[in-house]
Design brief:
Main location: membrane
CATH architecture: Up-down Bundle
Number of domains: 1
CATH class: Mainly Alpha
Mean pLDDT: 81
Subcellular location: Cell membrane
Pfam families: AA_permease_2
Low-confidence stretches: 1-21, 495-503
Keywords: Cell membrane, Membrane, Transmembrane, Transmembrane helix
Radius of gyration: 22 Å
Membrane topology: Multi-pass membrane protein
CATH topology: Amino acid/polyamine transporter I
Number of strands: 4
Shape: globular
Length: 503
């Protein structure tokens, strides 16, 4: 049940930056290395580079590394906003709490809560399906890997497995992530080194990083927008801040470290891939549309040989599964915070008495992802693909709002020092504006019925899914507002205390 002392609002006003009330999680169970591993795993680097690099190269050609570098800029600027907000308010609700404190409960619930969780659920459907397909192919069951029912059934089993691991606790999840992440990075490193060493491979050129080499703003913006998705997910590590040692410092450090490691990994792989295959539009060239959907699967046999190519195939599989696990971990903790602060039913704040995890929330998200995956698969494979494309719109939305929330929250302290002005003002502001510009450009492009695979009355299906999910969130917020009046009335300033129940 939710209880609030009579002077809660007064205490919150007097000490707005007090640490959150304990939610029953196992504090101090995650160190810097584990936090970085969770952040990297949530991005699924092997999967992300495999399914994105080809499309970036189709747009940017040999300037794909430049697009990766430019797409990283707003991500890094946003990471600074996450770091500063976490130092001030180390709450596992992250964007929900921060946006609520900056802009109020309406913006907090919609942009910091709903949009984040819908983006995660849509991503989970893709990750589960990709992981299942690669797992069946790796096992030599190519026929089943091409069967929708078999892939969907295997994907549901993967969701059950990662939900069980997430429910057991962060220490087990982190241990699993070390193995899965290590295999991914080792496979990418081996692939890159072998590609560089192949006879005839081109020597990398600094011209491939030239940000002024793009042929107009259209190709430039499209390539950078594609790259936003490739970096998305690192912020999941912030949701374990209440279980991390030195919760005000380590999660922020891990966020910046993980994004830098991602940049180095992606640039290395891109240079190696372009150097080996080139950007031609035939054969193994990355300009060949037939290679775009999965460049690693296409090139690995020629680079590594058939036997070792299987290792790359396994790496992409475990990459998707590792990200799936982190999605369940992050989402369950975000909704735990929403339950604690009275923005969701108290069931989301239930803590397992032995594992000290938000068990109800973990099972809820695993089940919700499984149901959504089955429904989208039944509707159409194309519809599922468009749903995944719409995630980019949601990413740009909540990253942009969170970055601007940092500027607004610290607005009265920005002139305290040059460091505060830079790290809490200038850099997050630039990041937020870039993200919202990406949102606007994405929405404009997605309006076209030619964008994606579906359309409805001349409007692109990707646009309808992306903007439609935000509109559905606004409607849902109006419904829950009537039930959770206290949060929507006092959410910005009041410290809402919850007696956390145990299963």
């Amino acid at each position: 049940m939710i209880t609030e002392p009579p002077d809660a609002a007064a205490r919150a006003e007097a000490a707005p930056d007090a640490p959150p009330t304990s939610k029953g999680l196992r504090g101090g169970s995650v160190g810097l290395l584990a936090a970085v591993a969770l952040g990297l795993s949530s991005v699924a680097p092997a999967y992300s580079i495999a399914v994105t690099l080809g499309f970036v190269t189709l747009v940017a050609g040999h300037l794909a590394p430049a697009a990766l570098l430019l797409g990283f800029v707003p991500i890094l600027l946003t990471a600074f906003a996450f770091r500063e907000l976490n130092r001030e308010m180390p709450d596992c609700g992250t964007t929900f709490v921060w946006t609520t404190r900056a802009f109020g409960p309406l913006a907090g619930w919609l942009a910091g809560g709903w949009v984040v969780q819908i983006a995660t659920l849509l991503a989970m459907t893709a990750l589960a399906r990709v992981g299942a397909g690669y797992l069946l192919a790796f096992a030599g069951l190519e026929t089943l890997a091409g069967d929708t029912a078999a892939v969907t059934g295997t994907a549901v089993l993967l969701l059950v497995a990662v939900t069980a691991v997430a429910r057991r606790g962060l220490q087990l999840a982190a241990s699993v992530q070390y193995v899965l992440l290590g295999l991914q990075l080792l496979a990418l490193l081996g692939f890159g080194v072998a590609a560089f060493a192949r006879e005839g491979a081109a020597t990398p050129s600094l011209a491939w990083l030239d940000p002024l080499g793009f042929d107009g703003f259209g190709p430039f913006s499209e390539a950078v927008l594609l790259c936003l998705y490739i970096y998305w997910g690192w912020d999941a590590l912030i949701t374990v801040n209440e279980e991390t040692r030195d919760s005000g410092r380590i999660p922020g450090q891990a966020a910046v470290i993980s994004t830098l490691v991602l940049l180095a990994t992606y640039l290395f792989t891109a240079f190696a891939t372009i150097g080996f295959a080139g950007t031609g539009d035939s054969g193994l060239g990355l300009g060949n549309p037939g290679n775009a959907a999965d460049v690693l699967a296409t090139l690995a046999p020629s680079v590594l040989g058939t036997a070792l190519a299987k290792v790359v195939q396994l790496a992409v599989c475990v990459s998707a599964v590792a990200a799936l696990l982190t999605c369940v971990v992050g989402s369950s903790r975000a909704t735990l915070s929403m339950g604690v602060h009275g923005a969701l039913p108290a069931a989301f704040a239930r803590i397992h008495p032995r594992h000290r995890t938000p068990s109800f929330a973990a099972v809820f998200f695993g089940a919700a992802a499984a149901v959504l995956l089955v429904l989208l698969s039944l509707v159409s494979g194309d519809f599922l693909g468009d749903a995944i494309l719409s995630v980019g719109l949601l990413i740009a939305c909540y990253y942009g709002v969170t970055a601007l929330a940092c500027v607004w929250y610290f607005r009265r302290r920005l002139l305290g020092s040059p460091q505060d002005l830079l790290l809490r003002g200038v850099l997050p502001l630039l990041g937020g504006l870039m993200m919202l510009a990406a949102f606007g450009r994405s929405a404009h492009d997605m309006l076209s019925p030619a964008y994606g695979s579906t359309s409805f009355h001349g409007v692109g299906g990707v646009f309808l899914l992306g903007v439609g999910s935000i509109a559905a969130g606004a409607v849902a917020m109006l419904i829950v507002r009537a039930r959770f009046r206290r949060f929507f009335r006092e959410g910005r300033t009041a410290v809402v205390r919850l007696t956390v129940s145990e299963d």
